[in-house]
Amino acid sequence: MKRVTLFNVSENNIISIYKETDRERTILGIKNALVHTDDENMTDVMKKTIKKLSDVTDEDFENTEFFLTV
Q1: CA 10, CA 36: separation in Å to the nearest integer?
Q2: Taking the CA atoms of the chain, what radius of gyration do you get in angstroms?
Q3: What string of DSSP letters covers 29-69?
Q4: What is the pTM of this model?
Q5: Domain count of the chain?
Q6: Alpha carbon of 54 to those of 11, 38, 46, 50, 69: distances in Å?
Q7: Which of 11, 27, 41, 56 could crosslink 7 through cysteines, CB 3.0-4.6 Å?
């Protein structure tokens, strides 16, 4: 059975902001921004997003539509 990773609204927004041409570059963009983030809640969300992105396949990443939610 295929495992599906679901991203919550905050994680989806983080991905939308830092989305690059592929999953690895997106993770790198979030990691680069993480070192400049002072807000504890935001760093927690960013770390969880990186973990979840690390667990999805490149194919699943490419086939998922990420969008900003206000």
Answers
A1: 18
A2: 12
A3: HHHHHHTT---HHHHHHHHHHHHHHHHS-HHHHHT------
A4: 0.89
A5: 1
A6: 13, 23, 12, 6, 22
A7: 11
* pLDDT, one tens digit for every residue, the chain (70 residues): 455 568 999 999 999 999 999 999 999 999 999 999 999 999 999 999 999 999 999 999 999 999 998 8
Asked if 43 and 34 touch (Cβ cutoff 8 Å), the reply is yes
Reduce the DSSP state of residue 37 to 3 states and report it. coil
The verdict on residue 12 lying in a domain is no
Kind plus residue range of the DSSP H or E element containing 10? helix 9-18
User: Which two tokens mark 27?
Assistant: 């993770």
Residue 9 covered by a domain: no
